[in-house]
Each structure stands twice: as structure tokens, then as C-alpha cells.
Amino acid sequence: MSTLRTPASTPRTSDPDWWRNAVVYQVYPRSFADTDGDGLGDVAGITSRVPYLSSLGVDAIWLSPFFPSPLADGGYDVADYRAVDPRLGTLADFDALVRAAHEHDIRVIVDVVPNHTSSEHPWFEAALGAAPGSAERARYVFRDGAGDAGELPPSDWVSNFGGSAWTRVPDGQWYLHLFAPEQPDLDWTNPSVRQDFEDTLRFWSDRGVDGFRVDVAHGLAKDLSTPYRPSDEHALPLDGSDPLYDRDEVHTIFESWRSVLDEYDPPRAAVAEAWAPAPRRVLYARPTELGQAFNFDLLEAPFDAEAFRTTIDRNLAMSEQSGASSTWVLSNHDVVRHATRYGLPEGTDTDAWLMTDGTSPALDRARGLRRARAATLLMLALPGSSYVYQGEELGLEEAAAIPHDQLQDPKWIRTGHTVKGRDGCRVPIPWTTSGPSFGFGSVAPHLPQPADFGASSVEAESDDESSTLSLYRAALAARRRLQRGEDLEWIDAGAGVVAFGRHDGWRSVTNFGTDPVPMPEGSVVVASGPLPAGELPGETTVWLA
499 and 543 in contact (C-beta within 8 Å)? Predict the structure, then answer.
């Protein structure tokens, strides 16, 4: 009989299904809180803010990568999967963070980046020093080039950050990188790669980590047979036949991961970042694999009643099919913040908008925040897990006017300075109304903050009952009090209104239109905006009991 592994630290309460309806707060460590005055957020900074996260009412924190990294892609180029970047702290600091979180009954989820390593990972440095055909190169995807002298890339595959997905090394071979050249892709047919990542899952689980978010989960399995076939991540087939993404073979990898995660009591949770067609995304969420998969459909939907209801219906049906609970998200570290998206004209190309430093088309800030508050309150009423990105509880907008010479996203370089990238949502968040970094640290931060950030700081909003922070605190407290089960019943409330009941009379009603509608009967639990007598204003959500 096998013995379950015991981690170093555990939450106060033990519920194996805690993840099914959790509110998970995403922390981008380098932009959360800086305690050592170097302008970069650190692990101790996160620990210092655990009481804030507890008062907010979240169930778990998800940490974007904090591992040693040369930061070619914001930490998603990992040089060591079992260590803390010295600029961010030590393993002892990480252990202290986990203990502090667990003492407040907050779970900890960490990012795993299995598709690629950093080009400064010891494995890749060894591969560069070894000969073609060596065991060192077999951990990665090295191939001979095309053309008479191998001078051309092996295929026409394009990197997600622009340009060829192949880079040539001095001896003439080429290596594959679906992202930046500093992020060489691993070859997951190699048993040593598989074993090493399973050991990494155990390393962090033994330290008390409660779950994992799996980056680019749909990219691990690849068809590298020749002739190379074209790939299009934006038009993936439903039969798993794309050569690079969402191939059927990837699921054997995650079945093995599930065996590792189930070595613990309770089993470690996991959620896949899998940009796969909806009918195939459920495969990653099966209980025999990761257990959950990110649903980005609400994030991509316009602020529209029919779009929201259709998206919710479809994803709840898929969750029932997989046996998982659904996941809901409106913002994260890769997209323009939803308080900004909702304030732009529908159909706006946000990449083009960012290139104007956020000046054209004009942003309707009040409307964007009003819609963001309404959409968030609706999302938090849904069955399943809700993912909240740091700063959205403050109503933060995208920092659109970062000077070009301070941009860090590799998209800026790889696209020939035509796409600014994701730095605008990764700007350090404000804690105080003033100071060199609005309370983030004692010096200017690694990315410049907007001059008016202080007005949206934790200090400015904490005692304001009408603030977005107060709304999140009230909604999360009510959600924890009310949330039971995963049932939802639609209520016909007329055109432009999305209404549903959960249980025991708890209802969520959202008026997506601009004109007020009659207020449904019931006692108001929380509302996303002011409620005139007898009316539910436009672009407003209310919970009723």
C-alpha cells in the first residue's frame, strides 16, 4: 500500500475540493510589493501583504513565476525550476510565505512553465556545448536547417512573439522556440524531461504548495516528422492534428502528472492554460488529468447580455461534461485590464490603441469602471472558480503610456516595435496615495506607474464605502457566506438583462443596457453601483436574497 506524502505546511482547514469554487488572486510577484528597495517586487513583499489578501477574502493566491530568470519574458523564461530568483528572495522566504498564507487559510498555487526553459538553464547551456545528436541536445528540439547548406529555418513556423520560431546556433543547427529565442522548447518525448518535471511537482508540493497553474499546457506535444506541416494556433482543428498545439499525445503527460499530484492528501490541484477549442479544452480538465482548465471566454466576450449568457451556458455544460468546475476570469497578466477594455468602443484593436499611448480612440474611464464592476459581480456569482488579477480590486486601468525606452515585453522587440505588449497590465500596483512608487517600495519601480495611481491605491480606497476595493470585499464576503453547490437556474428578465438564481433565493441580476429597468423584488445583498429607488440602472449588477 502506498503512503501519502506529507507537505511541510498545510492550511487550517482541509477540503480536497477547495478549488472547485475558490476565489483565486493572481500575484505577479515582480509588481506586487518591494521590501528590499531595488524596484522589483519580492517574495517577502507578498508575505507582508497576506493580511491584506485575507481581508480581501480570497481563498488562494496564484504566484506567477518567481524562479531564477534572466527576465527575457517576465519570468516565464525559467533558469531553475526549484529555486527562488535571488532578486526576489530565498527558499526560506518562500516557506515563510506559504506558512503565512496557510495560517490565514489561504492556499498557494504556483506557475509551472513546462513548454520551454530559459536559454540560461543549465540544460540548454549544456546543449549548446554539445554536438548535434548528443543526449544534451535531445532534451530540446534541435534540427538541421533547410536550403543547400542548412542556412534556412527547418520550417515556416512563427513565434508567438513574432519572427521565426527557429534560431540557428554556431554549428549550423537550429532550435525551436514557440516564444522568444531565449525560451527554447523542450522535447517532451524525452523521458528525462518528463521525470524532471514530475520531481519539480513533488519539490514544491513537499514545501506546502496546494496547486499548480500549467503554462502553455496545450503546447507540450509536437509532431516533428518531415515534411513539416503548417501550424495555426488561432484555427486549431478539433481532431488534435495541428503539429504544435493541442495534440492528443499531451494528455498522457498530464495523466502522469495527476498520479504525482494524487500522492498528497489532499491531492494537489492544477489548472491548465490551454488555448484550445472549447470542445477540446475539457480534456485537460478531466479528473484523470489536471482537473481544471482556464476558460477565457468571458475575458474575450463583449459587454453584452447575449454574449455573456451564451458563454456561461456553454462553459457550464462543458464543466459538467468533464466533471470539473468552471473557471472564470476577466483580467490577467497577458491582457489589457478589463476596466480599460470595457471603456473603449466595441471592436477596438487594443494593440493599436496602446501604440497611441491610449489616446485614440478615447477611453471612457467612468463607463469602463462601471462595466468592470458589473461584470465582476456577475462573475463572482457564478458556480466555479473565479480568478482575480492583482489590482483589479482597485479598479486599475491599463498603464497605456509607458515610454518606449522602458518597455520590457519581448513582443516590443520581436514585432519590430509595432506591438507594445503586456507591460501595461504588469505595472506595480499602488498601496498608498503618495511616495516614489505609491507604497510599492522605497524607490521607483521597474515599470513606471501612471501619475494618478495614488487615487486608486489601497490607502485611498480602504475607507471609501463606494470604492471598488470595498465592492470586492463586500462581494467576496457575501459569496463565501452564500456559495453552496454548483447549480444555476436562468431567470427570464427581459432583453439586455442576465439574471440567474443559485440557491436559497440568492439571485444575480445584471442590466447590460444603458437605460434603467425595474428592480426585481428581494433584499439587496450587494450592488456594483448606486441603486435609485425601484430601479436597476444600466450597466449594473445586483445580488438579491
Answer: no
Which residues on adjacent β-strands are paired with residue 214?
112, 272
pLDDT tens-digit profile of 161-212?
Answer: 999 999 999 999 999 999 999 999 999 999 999 999 999 999 999 999 999 9
3-state DSSP helix/strand/coil % of the chain, to nearest 5: 30, 15, 55
Closest CA to 254 of 282, 284, 279: 284
- Spatial distance between the Cα atoms of 112 and 269, rounded to a whole number of angstroms: 13
pTM score, whole prediction: 0.95
Which amino acid, residue 311?
A: T
User: Each residue of 21-56: pLDDT tens digit?
Assistant: 999 999 999 999 999 999 999 999 999 999 999 999
User: For residues 511 and 528, what is the distance between their CA atoms, to the nearest angstrom?
Assistant: 11
Confirm whether 263 is a catalytic residue: yes
List the catalytic residue out of 34, 59, 215, 289. Answer: 215
233, 263, 357, 535: which is the annotated catalytic residue?
A: 263
Answer yes or no: are the C-beta atoms of 215 and 67 closer than 8 Å. Answer: no
Active site residue 215: yes
Cell numbers found for residue 170: 554556431
Return d(Cα 334, Cα 242) in angstroms, integer.
24
